[in-house]
Structure formats: structure tokens, C-alpha cells
Write a structure and sequence with these properties.
It is built from 16 helices and 5 strands. It has 497 residues and is an alpha+beta fold. Strands 1, 2, 3, 4 and 5 form a 5-stranded antiparallel sheet that branches. The protein is rod-shaped and about 155 Å long.
């Protein structure tokens, strides 16, 4: 103790000071080393969190209405601008950056190097998300229950061309019979056909009855009130497959086995048709007949309905012709009529061809009635039993104009189920593009989404990020990679929905 006022004198040797300096330097170096090692781990985690945060800003309306997750790369402007997303990520990182703390890591730069859009590779991302959405709602076994009907309907559709050829042959046979009769009249020993066999008047020939019907507008015959048909339409030039679309630059990735039937089930669940809205989907409809649009691809509801009904009619004609070929009584009636129409020629091939034509005419009238039944909410089996047959060969003119109450055939399919068959026959690429068109047009009807384009919707991105951190404990310590006096790390992150 010395000095005044009780103060203590102290001293430290140079050796001790140097020793303490070395010890503290070592401790700070260890702290900085631990910090740098922690920063290297944090860079990867922070980059992943920043990207996931950006993806959290997905289009909420599309998720709610269509069960799909996409990030709008145009920020509602309709013009793809990735710098907007990069700026958003930078701003979020700045707001989250801690001004104090042990790590003090900051995002200095972010660049989107690769990206995938909903429309890339023929809408692969759109289709995959749609299939995923419906798979989460329906059991896998549902495919087995409809696969057989899809396959049978597809086979029936393929046979429609053969029936059309038979119909043409029947008309040719009728024309040949008339030509033969004209030539016979010029002979001196001509005997009128009515004296040879019981002649069927031309106006009672089912072929002559149906021939003009096939030249009429199909909707006028199957829709009870044609004025009730939707008149909505969309701009054909604005369809995704017809306009110039933005394209991503990520390489195509191997796609899993996405069953087309799952996509058909998605469309059936989320899209509307003439029979009403789907179980889910948008409340806004640019087109009322969305499933029919996916089948027909026209820009107006009425045109799509007409195209759909024509394809549906072809399936029903095959089904009804199959039923007739299984009914011996109806075949006997058709043969009797064929003999009455061209039997005077004595040519079996003509009689046979006309008989087939009469059966086809009968099938056509029955099919018209079937479609009326379907549009009214009834069900019709792909192939009816003879007991379910409705039309009468002797009253085709009356039957074609008669509106019956919708029936529920045993094992019958509804209008929507028939549309699923037609959707399954539509080329995959066309189906996906038309599905994207429907979603885009409906989304534009929502406030705030008037400029939405599906080709600006991001499904996945790859980003290059640069993080920096200031040295904390000792500026002279050169641990880690430094640039301009600060630590710097570059990381690459990739994420998709």
C-alpha cells in the first residue's frame, strides 16, 4: 500500500503483457474460427429459407380454386420479370437481417439463373400439379372402376368410321337399285316392281327418312331449347397454344409416369359442362361448357357443344348398332324392309347393304333420343339391352321429334361420364393446353388478376446467392474466404412446387 488517499500502485511486466496478448489473440481467433464455421453452415440454411419464403407467396386464388401452387413471375403485370422476384428476396432478407448478434450474416446479391414455367414442355408442370391435386382427393382404385368404360368407349369410337362407310354403301345400293329400275322401265317386257313383290314406298324407307336429318344442325335435334345454349366465347388468338409464350431455361427433367386418366379426372372434378359445374373449381366461368371446350377446342360454347355432341353421337350409334345386331327380331324386321325397298332387283348384295343401312338409320334415331336423355340428366348404357330400346322402326319420323323423360338405364353412364370418355380420346397435349386456357381465362375474371398469364407462372427456380459477413472479433484474422475485407460465400439453391 502506498501513495495518498488509499490508492494502490500496480505494474505489469512487458512479458506478462505480451503473454496476455497472445492468450487473448488465441481466444479471439478460436471464437472467430467457430463463427466462420457456423456462418458456412448458416449460409446454406439461410439460402434455403429465403427461397422457401419467396415460394410462400404463391398465387392464393389458384390454390383455393384449382389446387395448384404457382408463383407469379410477373407480379400481376402479365410481363415476366424475374428481377421483381430477385428484388423481393433481397428486401425480405434485409428486413430479416439482424443488426447485432454473433453471426451478422447479410444477403448481398441474388440472381435467378434457371427457372421453369407452367407452360414449359407442353404444360408438363401444369399437368403434374393437376394430377397430384386429384390423387390427394381420390383413391387409387377409382382408376380401375372407370378404365374399362374408357377403353370400351375408345374402341366404340374407332368403329364409327366403319359404320360411316356402311352408311355410304347403303345409299349407293339404294341409288343402284333406282338406276336398275330406270333401265328396266326402258325394256319392252318391263313389269312394275309392285307386281313382283310388295314394294316399300321411298318415303317410308328409313334410309330416306334419316338422310336429310343427318344434314340438319345436330343441336336443333338434341337440345330442347336451342335458345338456352350458352353464347359465351373467348379470344382464339389469346389461347396459350396460339400466342407467343415465355419459356423457361431449365433443362427438361425426367417426368414420372403421369397417367392421362388422372388428368381427365381432374378436369371432370374442377371444370363445368352443360350438365353443370364440377364438384370444385372456379365460381367464375369465361366459358360455361369447359369440358366441351377441352374436347372441341373452339372459341365459342355453342361450337364446342356441337362438336362434342357429334362425337358423342358417333359413340352412341356404334353402341346402338351393336344392340341391333344382337336382336334377331329387329334384324328380321330390317331385312323385310330391305327386301321391300330393293328386293325387286333380285340382287342379294344390294339387299344386304340396304338392310345394314336401315339398321344404321334406326340406330341414328335411337342415338338422337339417347343424347336428349343424357342432356336432360338421364343415363344410358354404352351398349343397351334389347329391352332398353326406345324407338320404333315404323315411327321414325315421330320418334325423331319426340321428347321423352330422361331414363336411368341399368349400368348407364351420365353425360359427364361420356365426356370423360371423349376427354380420354383427346390428344394429351391438346387437353393440357386447353385446360391451361380455361384456368387462365377464369382467373382473369377475379379482381386483381385481370392480366394473369399461365406462361408467367413459375413452378421452379434455381438461384445463385452471395452472402457476406463482417469480421467480428479480430480484423487481422484471415479465416475463411475474404473479399474486400469481408467474408463472402456463394451458394446455389433450387426449389420447385
Amino acid at each position: 500500500m502506498g501513495g495518498k488517499k488509499g490508492k494502490c500502485d500496480g505494474s505489469i511486466t512487458i512479458f506478462l503483457a505480451l503473454t496476455l496478448l497472445l492468450i487473448l489473440s488465441f481466444l479471439f481467433a478460436m471464437l472467430e474460427a467457430a463463427r466462420v464455421q457456423g456462418l458456412e453452415t448458416l449460409v446454406y440454411q439461410k439460402g434455403k429459407l429465403d427461397l422457401e419464403s419467396a415460394f410462400g407467396a404463391y398465387n392464393g386464388a389458384m390454390w383455393e380454386q384449382y389446387g395448384m401452387l404457382f408463383l407469379d413471375g410477373s407480379a400481376g403485370t402479365g410481363t415476366l420479370d424475374l428481377s421483381l422476384l430477385e428484388g423481393q428476396m433481397m428486401e425480405e432478407a434485409r428486413l430479416e437481417e439482424l443488426s447485432t448478434g454473433f453471426f451478422q450474416l447479410a444477403l448481398k446479391n441474388v440472381e435467378i439463373s434457371e427457372y421453369t414455367l407452367a407452360t414449359d414442355w407442353g404444360g408438363a408442370a401444369f399437368q403434374e400439379q393437376a394430377c397430384t391435386a386429384i390423387q390427394q382427393q381420390l383413391a387409387a382404385g377409382v382408376l380401375d372402376t372407370i378404365w374399362e368404360k374408357q377403353e370400351m368407349g375408345g374402341e366404340m369410337s374407332k368403329k364409327s368410321d366403319e359404320l360411316e362407310k356402311n352408311w355410304k354403301m347403303a345409299q349407293d345400293a339404294t341409288a343402284s337399285a333406282e338406276k336398275y329400275e330406270k333401265e328396266q322401265k326402258e325394256k319392252p317386257d318391263y313389269v312394275p316392281a309392285e307386281k313382283v313383290t310388295q314394294r316399300l314406298p321411298k318415303e317410308q324407307n328409313p334410309i330416306n327418312i334419316v338422310k336429310p336429318l343427318k344434314q340438319k344442325g345436330i343441336l336443333d335435334m338434341v337440345v330442347e331449347d336451342p335458345n338456352a345454349i350458352s353464347q359465351k366465347g373467348i379470344e382464339a388468338e389469346d389461347m396459350v397454344e396460339k400466342r407467343s409464350c415465355y419459356c423457361g431455361n431449365q433443362p427438361a427433367k425426367p417426368q414420372g409416369s403421369v397417367d392421362k386418366l388422372w388428368f381427365v379426372l381432374y378436369l371432370n372434378t374442377y371444370f363445368s359442362c352443360m350438365a353443370g359445374n364440377g364438384e370444385k373449381g372456379s365460381e367464375n366461368h369465361a366459358l360455361d361448357y369447359e369440358l366441351e371446350y377441352c374436347i372441341g377446342g373452339r372459341d365459342k360454347d355453342a361450337d364446342n357443344l356441337e362438336e362434342t355432341v357429334k362425337k358423342l353421337l358417333a359413340i352412341r350409334e356404334v353402341g346402338n348398332f351393336t344392340t341391333l345386331m344382337q336382336d334377331e327380331a329387329k334384324q328380321a324386321v330390317s331385312l323385310e324392309l330391305a327386301v321391300g325397298a330393293v328386293g325387286f332387283t333380285g340382287m342379294p348384295p344390294l339387299i344386304s347393304a340396304v338392310q345394314v343401312g336401315i339398321l344404321l338409320a334406326w340406330s341414328y334415331v335411337e342415338s338422337i333420343q339417347d343424347i336428349r336423355c343424357l342432356l336432360a340428366g338421364g343415363t344410358i348404357a354404352l351398349v343397351k339391352s334389347p329391352l332398353e330400346w326406345k324407338s320404333d322402326i315404323g315411327n321414325l319420323k315421330q320418334d325423331i321429334n319426340q321428347q321423352r323423360q330422361p331414363s336411368q338405364d341399368s349400368g348407364g353412364l351420365s353425360y359427364r361420364e361420356y365426356l370423360m370418355i371423349l376427354l380420354g380420346m383427346t390428344p394429351r397435349r391438346s387437353l393440357v393446353y386447353r385446360g391451361m386456357n380455361v384456368v387462365e381465362e377464369n382467373m382473369r375474371l377475379i379482381d386483381g388478376y385481370g392480366k394473369l398469364r399461365v406462361d408467367t407462372l413459375l413452378n421452379g427456380i434455381k438461384v445463385q446467392e452471395q452472402y457476406v459477413a463482417q469480421p467480428l472479433f479480430l480484423q487481422l484474422i484471415t479465416l475463411g474466404k475474404k473479399q474486400g475485407g469481408v467474408y463472402s460465400w456463394n451458394t446455389e439453391q433450387e426449389l420447385s412446387y
